[in-house]
Amino acid sequence: MAAVALGSALGVIGIGAMSPILADTAPVVVAQSASNEESAVEFIDLIFADQYDAAMDYLHPLLRSDGEESMIERAQEFETQIGEFQEQQGVETVDNVVLVEAVFGETSDTIVVIFDEDGLITGVDFPIEP
Please, which pLDDT band fits residue 66 given cuts at 50, 70 and 90? Predict the structure, then answer.
């Protein structure tokens, strides 16, 4: 599977997890002891606290080099549409996917964070429709 950026119409930013390009890219591991859930929670907190440089450390290098401006724009657009980030209410993990339930303004929504086998983020879905 080739590296791909998923459709922005879906609010998804990501790369193909099985890309041959990834085999030649040395990942930067944020904290080997951190679980995917902990990393997802910290990443979401950093993005919505406008601490983008620190948040980018959680991303796979291909997504990081490709996605900083896009990731910032998606997070800002999401907040504009659904309301200002208030808090996280829950986390659920299914395989390498972490679902983070968060409160925005007067509503809540789920942000989907996808991890590779090294614990780096390879995709984030900020749902478009509130």
Answer: low
